[in-house]
Amino acid sequence: MVDTRPAGFDGVFAELREVLAAHAPELVVTADEPGTFYLEAPRAFAGRSEPAFFGAVQRRKSYVSYHLMPVYADPSLLEGMSTALKKRMQGKSCFNFTRPLDEGTRAELTELTRRGMEKYRQLGLV
Fold first, then answer.
1. Exposed, middle or buried, 39 (CB in 10 Å: 0-12/13-18/19+)?
2. Beta pairing class for 28-33 and 36-40
3. What is 71-116 written as a DSSP string?
4. C-alpha dihedral over 66, 70, 74, 87, to 10 degrees?
5. Domains in the chain, CATH or no CATH each
6. pLDDT tens track for 79-126
7. What is the CB neighbour count within 10 angstroms for residue 62?
8. Engineering a disulfide at 90: which of 31, 78, 84, 94 sits with its beta carbon 3.0 to 4.6 angstroms away?
9. First to last CA, the chain
């Protein structure tokens, strides 16, 4: 099967992976292969047996997705989010990108991910 996805998505994937991977030392990498990067917390939410999902970057056919579960667990993390980043939201905890991030969007996503990590620490998941 021939991969017909735009080559530019490799750069978008790499950039988003870098933002998420900054937190890998405290989390568990469950997938790290071309087009897929997953992180889980070392502990589970209360009452659950499986580790808590933290985030992922996935290269799709027509976009690259950035999943950040802390914003699902605590939607208040999204308060004050810029219109530019909000336009990229798909559902409650996923952001889709088709182009490299501009400096402002990257900084905002980096900060949102950092705050999400802090939330997981507060919840005792990390």
1. buried
2. antiparallel
3. HHH-GGGGTT--HHHHTTEETTTEEEESSPPPHHHHHHHHHHHHHH
4. -10
5. 8-122 (3.90.1150)
6. 999 999 999 999 999 999 999 999 999 999 999 999 999 999 999 999
7. 9
8. 94
9. 40
